[in-house]
Amino acid sequence: MAFSLKPETLTRIDEVITHYPVKRSAALPLLHLVQEEQGYISRDAIEWIAAKLELQPINVYELVTFYPMFRQEPIGRRHIKVCRTLSCALNGGYKVCESLEKEFCTHRGEVSPDGEVTIEFVECLASCGSGPVVMVDDELHERVDAAKVSQIAEQIRREAAARPKA
Ligand code: FES
Q: Which CATH class is domain 78-162?
């Protein structure tokens, strides 16, 4: 299937490019926008961004491989981020991550068998006093314990069941 983006993403991309004196400087923001929509940066996305900014694909590929925040594989429909930085780690962040993995029968960095979630460790989510902290997409969950893990998993399953079938 040919690479395509939503019209609103395309509008944001065209707008972002105007913020830079030379097009190529917009490579990082474009990668963020594409990942925000598609969840990862595919080879087609690399080629599309390169063409858009009049770069060689290798120039964009180098950025994707250099910066750890860019993913090269698809993720689940929901993205679960577990903070592993000191304060959260000391308060049980690793255990929380294990419990979430069990809830969804998956391992960190993989897509769960039902395609619903990808769980990843991330660095500080700027809520260190209320760890362990978990983000589900853009929603922050604080002081996550075993009961909250179950609640989060239940909520994700409920929302998945309510989603119209494609
Ligand atoms: S250490 Fe987890 S939010 Fe800062």
A: alpha beta
- Tens of pLDDT along the chain (166 residues) come to 578 999 999 999 999 999 999 999 999 999 999 998 998 999 999 999 999 999 999 999 999 999 988 999 899 999 999 999 999 999 999 999 999 999 999 999 899 999 999 999 999 999 999 999 999 998 999 999 999 999 999 999 999 999 887 6
Distance (Å) from CA 71 to ligand 1 centroid: 22
**Rounded to 5°, angle at Cα 99 from 146 and 154:** 70
Domain ranges of the chain: 7-66, 78-162
* Closest CA relative to residue 63, chosen from 54, 74, 55: 55
Entry pTM: 0.77
Distance 134 CA to ligand 1 centre (A): 9
Residues in contact with ligand 1 by the CB-under-6-Å rule are: 83, 85-88, 124-128, 131, 133
